[in-house]
Task: structure prediction
Amino acid sequence: MKKDSLIKGTLILAAAALIARFLGIFQRVPLDHILKGDGGTYFAVANNVYLTLLVVATGGLPSAISKMVAERYSLGREHEAKRVYQAALLFGIVTGVILTIALYAAAPYYAVHIAKTPGAEVAIRAVAPTLLIFPIIAMMRGYFQGRQFMMAGGMSQIMEQILRVIVGVALAYYVVSIDWGEKWGAAAASFGNVIGGVGALLVMIYYAGKLRRGDLAERPVVDIEAVKAASKIPFRSIYREIFTISIPIVITAMTVQIIYTFDSSLFIRLTEDYYGGYHEAKAVLRELSFKAQTIAGIPPILAIALSTSIIPVISSAYSLRNMREVERQTSLVMRIVLFTGVPAALCIAAASYSVTGLIFADASGYGVVAALTSGTIFQITMMTSNSILFGLGKQRIPMMNTFVGIGLKIICSYALAPVYGVYGVVMATSVCFVIMTWMNMEAIRKEVRFTVLGSRWPSYIVTIVVSVAAGWGTEVGIRHLTNSWPDKLTYFVSAAVAAGVIGVLYLVLLVLLRVVTMEDARSFPGPLRKLFILLLKLFNRSETQK
Result:
């Protein structure tokens, strides 16, 4: 079977993640109407706890497996790679059982004494069985990524979200309609994760069979001696290597989820006095956890896909000491992140009022959405630089940087939240991402000579500022012109027109100010490459002659 290139693999994962993210947001829209009281908070708290434990169980393992498998295949030791896969699957099964039992048992204590949201324990217990399934799926995705076949992970992610949304919303609606209350409605919505996990596992099993048949077709004759040699490798040595790689990755992969769980767990304690009471702080927590954290997950989608795709690519090149290819891929991935992730974050922030009002029941909390989404600019660069360091075999560096960043997040949260409320919490998060990005980039430069924009930074900043300012002005103006229309229609039109203005102006300015060169354009994926070459020919003829 043909491998996916970095660009193709990234596009597959990005498309799947984008679809999955929008399906996840789509789930929040009806739930915002179904769970009108505390149910939304219960659901968000349960989801954050579950996602944190899932990262603990699987966060670094797929990346570690991806790296180990990619290195072994590049050196022709495929049977060792399959032995790694077997060991990983066994670990996923055992870990899933342990974490499911632990989460189910600890749910009441966490909900009442830590998060101070009594009633969330039912939702937490409803989502616990998902931990039986997803560690196995994560191990399978890691193996496929190491083989540079991204379609399996992408399709399983889409299936997971489709089932999760349909089942979760339908069950929540039914439970609330028979007057079981918000607590059980949140639990029903959370149980949709379990059904989504089952669907995702079935998709992965299908692709595993397809990959196995492809391997047999390519190599019908099995090297018995190589199989015997690989089978003698003890699991303990494989686990030692996996954990050496994965523990730093787990810690760094947990950064965002730890921050979100920290915020949802301690927000009320930190801001209760600022907002003048428990119930007032709880209402703001709903805006942060149910709305802002959901929307802020959109801009990093491409960075997550790139972070997944870049590890085996850089790892393979680095294992062969092909430093020219390492430098090329590092520069490419940072440019792609810069040209796509930053404007996506600022576009949503500029139109946050309309975006929030369009997705949810009303536009309350749009300021929190704008602040948190803007901060994802540095989350994106932090995640991508982490993965570059992983591919270079420098796992300990981003791990230590993560400790520094999370430490700063905690200190700044305690210092700023009592003074600025939810915006103090968001500012603390941005400080964490900024410091981690800076430290990562300094570490990468010691290993790899690469450039992102060089002398083009001032032009790029002008491009961003002008585009976002125009988009924000457009969004405000459209809302005032259409204030007599139905709210949802106003929000849709103003958000769409603002996004269009930002998108067109951004692309044109990138070319006019020579931020994107012909060399950059030729390294982009097909449709994007054609678009930029056309723009370069149209606006900057001298550049096209180079």
User: Anything to note?
Assistant: Residues 62 and 507 are 35 Å apart (CA to CA).
